Amino acid sequence: MTTETKGIAQLTTAMVLSGTIGVFVVESGASSLNVVFFRVVFGALALGAYVAARGWIRGHGFTRRSLALTVLAGLFIVGNWILLFESYGNTSISVASVVYHMQPFFVVVFGALLFRERLTAATLGWVALAFAGLVLVSGVRPEDLTGGDGHYLLGIGQALGAAVLYGLATLVVKRVRGVRPHLIALVQVVVGIPLLLPFADLGAMGGAGAGAWGWLVTLGVFHTGVMYVLMYAAYAKLPTAKIAVLAFVYPAVAMLTDWAVYGHLMGWLQALGLPLIVLASLKVTLRKPAAAPAAPAAAAGSAPRTDAPREAAASRTATPVASGE
C-alpha cells in the first residue's frame, strides 16, 4: 500500500465516522448539552492518552497567545456541536449535515470581513451559488416564513449557526503556529468540560442504561479521539484536491445512515441543491490564493477543513466537524 493510498483509507474512515455521528447522538437519547459534555469528557481522555503515549505533551509549543487563541476556538467548537446536535431533532440528520457543510463559505466570507483577506468576484459568485443550493436543500418554502413549521426553520438556523461557529474557530486557529493539531484538538475538548459542567444534567444520566452509555462513550472515543488521529495522519499524506473530494464522504454517509436508520429521504427539489453546493465548495476550497497562501488551520468538530497543503498538516483545525462534527 502506497503512502497516498493509506492516506485515502485513513481519511475515508474518518469521514465515515463523522457521517455516523448523527445516529449516535440521536440514539443516545440524551440532551444535546449532555451529549456534548460526555463527548468532550471521553474525547479528552482518548486524545490525552494518545498524545501522552506519543510524548507530545512535553515541548507542546504553546505560547500564551497561541493557547488563548486555542481556548477561544474551543469555545466556538463546543458551541458548534451543541447547535448541530440540536438541529438534528428539529430538521433531520441529512438536512442538518448538508447545511452544516456550508462551513468553507463562512470561512471565506469571515476571512474577508475580519482579516481583509482578498475576495474575488469569482469566489463571490461561487458563494452565491452555494447559498442558492442551500435554499433548495433546506426545503424552506415562502409560507414557512410566515407561520409554517417553526421547529424546522429553527433547525436550519441552528445548523447554519453551527457552521458559522466552525468557520470562526477555523479562522482563529489559523493564527496558531508551531503546535501539533492533536494538541490543539485536546485543548479544545478540555475547554468544554468546565464550560458545560454547570449546564449538564448529570442527574438525568443516572437512569441511563448500558446502551445509552455505549453510544456516548463511542462518540467520545471513536468519533472524536480516533477520528481526529486518522484525519491528521491522512492530511500529511494527501494533496489538497483529494482531501477536498473526500470531505464529501461525510455528508454522503450522513444522508445514507439517516435513510437506512430513520427512513428520511430528501425530496427531488432538495436533491437539486446538492450538486450546486458540491461544485461551489470544490471551487472555493481549491481556488488559487489571490495573494500569499493562507496559513493552514488546525481541526475541530464535527466537518473537517480542506484547504491545507499536505506539508502543513501539523496545524489544521480540530473539528470535523467537521468535526464533525
TrEMBL record:
Residues 316-325 have a biased composition (Polar residues). Residues 293-325 are annotated as: Disordered. It comes from the Bacteria. Residues 293-306 have a biased composition (Low complexity). The keyword Iron does not apply. Belongs to the EamA transporter family. This is DMT family transporter. It comes from Streptomyces fragilis. The lineage of its organism: Bacteria, Bacillati, Actinomycetota, Actinomycetes, Kitasatosporales.
